[in-house]
Write a structure and sequence with these properties.
Length: 124
């Protein structure tokens, strides 16, 4: 399959699934967290596919790898925030299982893509 744009990337598709799942889960958070945990969790998840798309649209492998790295950081942030929500009792492990599985899959794909891009154009 030819990659024409970011929509063809499985990692982007999975990250879009993660955004949907995070939005679903965030509806379980207390209303008083609307401008705290809810907003932060949504923004972190939202930035994963956004950075993948932006990086894919760049003209250099170095830029692409940099945006994938930012997406990887946002993935770790999303994962951490979900784990915090479990620890403080806002969500339970069963509720977050799908999202955390997606985080794991996305993280592995991003790592592999970054490694491949970095090996194509190693830093001096």
């Amino acid at each position: 399959m030819t990659i024409r744009n970011h929509r063809d990337l499985i990692v982007w598709q999975k990250s879009m699934d993660l955004v949907e799942e995070v939005y679903r889960l965030s509806n379980f958070l207390p209303k008083e967290e609307m401008f705290g945990a809810t907003n932060q969790l949504r923004r972190a998840a939202f930035s994963i596919p956004s950075n993948i798309a932006e990086g894919n649209a760049r003209n250099s492998s170095k830029d692409y790898a940099r945006f994938l790295s930012m997406a990887r950081g946002s993935k770790a942030e999303t994962e951490t925030q979900l784990e915090i929500c479990v620890r403080i009792g806002y969500l339970n492990e069963e509720q977050t299982r799908k999202a955390l599985t997606l985080c794991d899959e996305i993280g592995k794909m991003l790592y592999a893509m970054i490694q491949k891009l970095n090996h194509q154009h190693p830093s001096p």
